[in-house]
Write a structure and sequence with these properties.
alpha/beta, Maf protein, 203 residues
């Protein structure tokens, strides 16, 4: 994979994702700037997979900014719901006006899980696709990661974002909303994908 230089656009308007990705990039000495800070629009996520959406977001940010761009697409996949909400995880949080309310989204997930019955279980995983795109020539690379765990109710913790307060990763007894951020950055779906990305960048 070709180098990305010393400045990278993070193609997200989600402040939580921007913080996590910037923290993961810090050790590399790469300066990160968010899409919102550059005034870049949020593209419509029309892909059918996380990788599709990450790729389209990275390509658009690279083309509009003239800089290499990194995009993340991630979501919660619940076994009892046959993988939903999946690629529409963020949309489950949106009200009629498009404003996101993550408690509303978590309540919907739990309501549907309960409706599926105890036998359906509470297993779930977070999935993440990271895509890097370079401007001008259309080159892009994508990697994927995941972390398995279980859902809990009620939500616990305020250190994460999105569905983090209702997800307990395998091998732990705290939710992503309760875990120390440094630990989460080492074990999360995003960290898993990021490790693959670093390996690809170094090859």
């Amino acid at each position: 994979m070709r180098p990305v230089g010393d400045r990278l656009v993070i193609a997200t308007h989600n402040p939580g994702k921007l913080r996590e990705i910037t923290a993961l990039m810090d050790p590399l000495g790469i300066s990160c700037v968010g899409a919102e800070e550059l005034g870049l629009p949020e593209p419509e996520e029309i892909g059918v997979t996380f990788a599709d959406n990450a790729d389209l977001k990275a390509r658009e940010a690279a083309d509009l900014s003239g800089l290499p761009a990194l995009a993340d697409d991630s979501g919660l996949c619940v076994d009892a719901l046959h993988g939903r909400p999946g690629v529409v995880s963020a949309r489950w949080a949106e009200d009629a006006g498009g404003k996101r309310d993550w408690m509303r989204a978590m309540e919907r997930v739990w309501r549907e899980v309960e409706a599926a019955g105890e036998d359906a279980g509470r297993d779930a995983h977070f999935a993440c696709a990271l895509a890097i795109a370079w401007p001008n020539d259309g080159q892009a690379e994508t990697v994927e990661g995941r972390v398995d765990g279980k859902l809990v109710w009620p939500p616990r913790g305020d250190r994460g974002f999105g569905y983090d307060p209702m997800f307990v990763p395998a091998g732990y007894d705290q939710t992503f909303g309760e875990l120390d951020p440094d630990l989460k950055h080492r074990i999360s779906h995003r960290a898993n994908a990021f490790a693959k990305l670093l390996q690809a960048l170094n090859e």
